[in-house]
Design a protein that fits this description.
The protein is an alpha+beta fold. It has one domain: Nucleoside Triphosphate Pyrophosphohydrolase (Alpha-Beta Complex), CATH 3.90.79.10. About 30% of the residues lie in helices and about 25% in strands. The protein contains eight helices and twelve strands. The longest helix has 19 residues. It is globular and about 60 Å long. The chain starts with 10 loop residues before the first helix and ends with a strand.
Amino acid sequence: MTDADGWRLPEALVAQMRRFLAGESGPPPVPRLAATVVLLRPASGGFEAYLLRRAASMAFASGMYAFPGGGVDPADARADLGWTGPPPEVWARRLGRPAGEAQAVVCAAVREVFEEAGVLLAEGAVPAGDDELESDRQRLVTHEAHLAEVLARRGLVLRSDLLGAWARWVTPEFETRRFDAYFFVAALPEGQLTRDVSGEADLTLWMRPADAVAGYEAGRMAMLPPTIVMLRELAAYEDIAAVLAAAAERDAARAVSSIPEIAPDGTVRLRHT
């Protein structure tokens, strides 16, 4: 279904919104702090973004195109880890969080890109195809290790300077799984390649933001509002340097929420505030 504001909403989501508006849903769950990263790489005449399609078996956003991302590990707020780039105190101001929480959000961004794309935003030797590094990645996925342990054991230092904070979205109250998610942009580090290693996706691809937007508008690619908004905004920039420069000026602390409501014509729509 396409609502009055042009959002393509899956019928299951519309039904969920109607139940919420009718008071048939339980109390909304507390949003979980999360981080999402849009990896960017140069392409002829511009750049591409890394997208993955969430597997149909996933409880949240199944079948949707999205970016690597996931929940924050609270232990990262207290972790003592090698760090270069803006310190947690600077990120605290950018994200509107206490320094410990800001550190955990940045750690989540780095960890999720590593877990879901095989790319490690760190300083030091990150050899492609290293079996031991792949073992470390799997231990992160299964929560057998924390990011600080993996970095320390490999002699690596987290590079927060590779990240640019772009936006913050809070999942609507009608969803059964909710996130308070910070969206970052990051250039693919030189010498590293993405790998289709995410067990949560059934397809991964690099695509120009404008082409992904066209796929969404034609109904070929399903996306939740934060994803398509990100892609529409990124499509306005000529290159990665311009994107990263713009990120430094954005208000990433302000939360955007999607509120369901009944339009005058009786249809359900999402209004963003």
